[in-house]
Amino acid sequence: MTKPTLQLKDVHKAYGDNPVLRGVSLDVDEHEVVALIGSSGCGKSTLLRCIDLLEPIDSGAVILEGEDISWPGYDVNAARRNIGIVFQSFNLFPHRSVMDNITLAPRKVLGHSRDEAEKQATELLTRFGLADKAGGYPDRLSGGQQQRVAIVRALAMQPRIMLFDEITSALDPELVGEVLGVIRDLKAAGLTMVLATHEMAFAREVATRVAFLDGGEVAELGPPEQVLSEPQEERTRRFLRRVTEAGRL
Amino acid sequence: MTATSDAVPVYDPARLDAISKRRRRNTAVSTASTILVLGALLVLIVTSPGWPAVRESFFNGFHAREVLPEILTGLKLTVILFLTAEPVILVIGLLLAVVRGLSAPVFTPLRFLAIAYADVVRGIPTILLILMFAFGIPALNLQGLSDSRLFWAWFALVVSYTAYVSEVLRAGLESVHPSQRAAARALGLNQYQSLRYVVVPQAVRRVIPPLLNDFIALQKDTALIAIVGAGVEMTRAAQIYAFDVFNYTPFVVAAFFYVLLTVPLSRWADWMADRQRRRSAAAGGGL
What we know:
- The complex is a heterodimer.
- By secondary structure, chain A is α/β, with parallel strands linked by helices.
- Chain A has a domain at 1-77 and 194-249: 3-Layer(aba) Sandwich (Rossmann fold), CATH 3.40.50.300.
- In chain A, 37% of the residues lie in helices and 24% in strands.
- Chain A contains 9 helices and 10 strands.
- Chain A has helices at residues 44-51, 76-81, 98-108, 114-127, 143-155, 173-188, 200-206, 224-229, 234-245, and strands at 6-15, 18-28, 33-37, 59-64, 67-68, 83-86, 161-165, 192-196, 209-214, 217-222.
- Chain B folds into 2 domains: 2-46; 61-286, Orthogonal Bundle (MetI-like fold).
- Chain B is 82% helix and 0% strand.
- In chain B, helix 6 (126-139) crosses helix 7 and helix 7 (149-175) packs across helix 9.
- The radius of gyration of chain B is 26 Å and the shape is flat.
- The chains are: A alpha/beta, B mainly alpha.
- Chains A and B meet through helix 2, strand 6, helix 3 and helix 5 of A and helix 8, helix 9 and helix 12 of B.
């Protein structure tokens, strides 16, 4: 049995007096896809930001491939090189072309040459049907295209794990499909992923396990068939009922 | 609705004709009203009782021609003064703006210094700064420091304008959404790299119009250096000649050249501001 790619151990996080995470523990094995579900404000986004060290945790540990990256004084830049994150609102750099958005970090952080970085970026763009957008600027792209570029930008760092923070929530419905297609593709390629999502049908399809977050902790964790169809916990059932009523399942 | 809008062809010749007729009429009206207003003002001035005396002491053709070479020599120094000041102001101003945004505890004293600098310097009239620097610092007789009054007057201008420019840049830095920095840091860029490649370029672009505005003001404020009587820039050149012959025409000639210097920058500032508005409108549609 190999070590999990990511281990969360009793992670606590509060904003002032408002506790958001109250002891989250979760192991993510290599090639696994874990979907985080739960109502808005349950801590999905905060958890992802804590994993990427964008928010310091109050107690517990975030362990990446056996190393406690949340330890005070750990080189956060080194840790983040191995973690890719994609945000709900894309956060592309508006003053840089698509190509420069993708090659910036490989060049400045990994020290790749421009040629090397652009060759790799072109391969990724081609793979996701964006080759003709390389020279354009983000504001010329549709939301779906921007989000796919954001995914490529994170992939260009060749992370050990990818985090997706409700990446389809800001998209028009007709653009959701193209972004979810990319995730399917990445799953087929064996990438380890954690994705916070409201798309239950999609979670069922791609996730190896589903974690239901409620009240700042993992309330239920298991294979998608179990958590989404035969939940053991009353609060999971309640949440799924609300989602079904909203027509999202 | 579709039927009617399709039925009105955009290239209907009669419609185009009506549009261009209307345009011609608008141009004619604006031209006529401009001529009328300016003409009335001109008539008012030249028919005023003091006009002959004013014309003699401010618009004297002979003195204008006589002073021109001196004014042009002064113009050269004026241009050198602001062209050398602007890059220095930009660099120090940016450093101060960045320092004010640093939250790490080690930077606390630096942050306080930057705040004190902006507060104190902006509180002192530029002309007083020039007097204090140009006469005060050479009087210290310090080894290795320049004793040139011109240099210290220039330096006082830099000190003064850096305070304003750093505030403009700080506003720019604060206007870049925190998610941009988060995205940069998430890619593994360190704090310096995030600023250098992501935050600062966006911040500077956004504040180019107010920056240009400050530089327009600086180009004219080089004239304040005349007060310490060192270095014959344009205003000093005009002063020397004017007080020699008791005629103010050199000031009008100098004023003309100041306008000539600043108008292109003003137009450019407006053009940049317009372009930015159009751009952000386009980006707003996409997001």
